[in-house]
Write a structure and sequence with these properties.
By secondary structure, the protein is an alpha/beta fold. The chain has a single domain, classed as Amidase signature (AS) enzymes, CATH 3.90.1300. Helix content is about 35%, strand content about 15%. Strands 1-3-2-4-6-5-10-11-9-7-8 form an eleven-stranded mixed beta sheet, with helices on both faces. Helix 2 links the parallel strand 2 and strand 3. The longest helix is centred in the first third of the chain and has 21 residues. The radius of gyration is 20 Å and the shape is globular.
């Protein structure tokens, strides 16, 4: 890999360096974060508390109640009062973390590319012509550009993993229900998950440990993995090659790797039914709200065509399909490996319905490899796996068994101890980082 300048992660900072990290991030948030249109609000953290995350500067996606500002939910104006802070915000504050801002997002968290017709698009810090990924676009862009060391996002069909791929950061989508969603805007409650983004798996591990303690679940002996070969065959050659290269690093480190054919298409289809049905029912009052973009309102109405019987049948199939995935695909392995996305990060014009270059197939492909994970309620980790020929980052996805977040993070740390794709400074804002 060509040498690139790098940014440190939180876990690598000496205590003396952490003292100045908060003000450095607040300065970057005002300069770089605003330039990227990734900041919905800046906040004065005041005196941060003590604890395992003391001084950690982080931001929250602007659908998670902070108790400070009224969240916009990605819309042109707030659709909710400030209210009380979400339980996850309270937990992080109790651990000493410092909330410094709210991150922009796509409208109602229901758009996978980062396009936002109401508030403008968040810019990708690697190249402003390319999408940042959605719906946690601002969260990923702010972590990637050194404006914070961690960010909260949401993931209903891939919304922390897709922007992690596009912006070159690490993201954990936990087991469904593991992090309380109280105080966050609902989209599809049977799928909604609060996720964590950071530069490295080591940083997310610190956050996870502060929230839940050190998980007892660990891989027995040498970790093993299966490669979902059909996903690689479906992917662009460059995506497949980069992800296989990252898997090769894991193999050299002693991880047992074997291939599996097939793909959980049935789970993917059920996810679309549940997501569309629940989004329409959750936001039915907003289908005629002119404050919500017309394209989004049309997307919401699509869910009304799904009747209660079909919706109930999709929900009822989940437990069996989850068991089938663990027994058929994972078997005795601890994780399944596949790209985060089958396509390279597209340009804005390819995913903007108002553009003559819009390709519906490309927009659909963004979440092709992530949706089934939400339906099955499984945890997944997205990690950087290198850069394509245009200099854009590419992500590898690791999918585990229920409550195996510690295992996923351990494998992510193992990979990142041997590589530094996660530490590279994004090209489009490199000069701003040193300013």
């Amino acid at each position: 890999m060509t040498a690139r300048s790098t940014l440190p992660d939180w876990s690598s900072l000496a205590e003396r360096d952490r003292a100045g990290a908060l003000e450095q991030c607040r300065d970057r948030l005002s300069r770089i974060g605003r330039k990227l249109n990734a900041v919905a609000a800046e906040m004065d953290p005041g005196a941060c508390g003590h604890g395992p995350l003391a001084g950690l500067p982080y931001v929250a996606k602007d659908m998670i109640a902070t108790g400070v500002t009224a969240p916009n939910w990605g819309c042109s104006e707030p659709l909710q009062s400030a209210g009380n802070a979400a339980s996850i915000i309270e937990s992080l504050s109790g651990a000493g973390a410092c909330l410094i801002g709210a991150a922009e997002m796509t409208e109602l968290a229901y758009e996978p590319s980062g396009i936002n017709g109401a508030r403008g698009n968040v810019l990708n810090p690697w190249n402003f012509d390319f999408i940042p990924g959605g719906s946690s676009s601002g969260s990923a862009a702010l972590v990637a550009s050194g404006c914070c060391y961690a960010a909260l996002g949401s993931d209903t069909g891939g919304s922390v993993r897709i922007p992690a791929h596009c912006c070159g950061v690490t993201a954990l989508k936990p087991t469904w229900g593991r992090i309380a969603v109280e105080g966050a805007m609902p989209l599809a409650p049977s799928l909604d998950t609060i996720g964590v983004l950071a530069r490295s798996a080591a940083d997310i591990e610190q956050i996870w440990g502060a929230l839940f303690g050190r998980d007892a679940a660990q891989a027995a002996g040498s970790p093993s993995a299966v490669v979902l070969e059909d996903a690689f065959r479906e992917s662009d050659a460059e995506i497949a090659g980069l992800c296989r290269n990252a898997i090769g690093v894991l193999s050299k480190l002693g991880m047992r790797i074997e291939g599996r054919t097939g793909f959980p298409d049935e789970a993917d289809q059920h996810c679309l039914i549940v997501m569309q049905a629940e989004a329409a029912r959750t936001h039915s009052a907003r289908m005629d709200d002119i404050r919500v973009n017309a394209v989004l309102r049309k997307r919401l109405r699509k869910g009304l065509s799904i009747d209660d019987k079909a919706y109930a049948e999709s929900l009822a199939a989940r437990e069996k399909l989850r068991a089938d995935f663990c027994s058929h695909y994972l078997r005795d392995a601890v994780v399944a490996l596949l790209p985060v996305m089958p396509v390279r990060t597209p340009r804005f014009a390819e995913t903007d319905p108002s553009s003559p270059e819009f390709k519906a197939r490309t927009l659909y492909a963004l979440s092709r490899f992530t949706r089934f994970v939400n339906y099955l309620g499984l945890p997944a980790l997205a990690v950087p796996a290198g850069f394509d020929s245009r200099g854009m980052p590419v992500g590898l996805q690791m999918v585990g068994r229920p409550d195996s977040e510690a295992v996923l993070l351990g494998i992510g740390k193992m990979l990142q101890a041997e590589t530094n794709w996660h530490g590279c400074v994004p090209a489009a804002i490199a000069s701003d980082i040193t300013a």
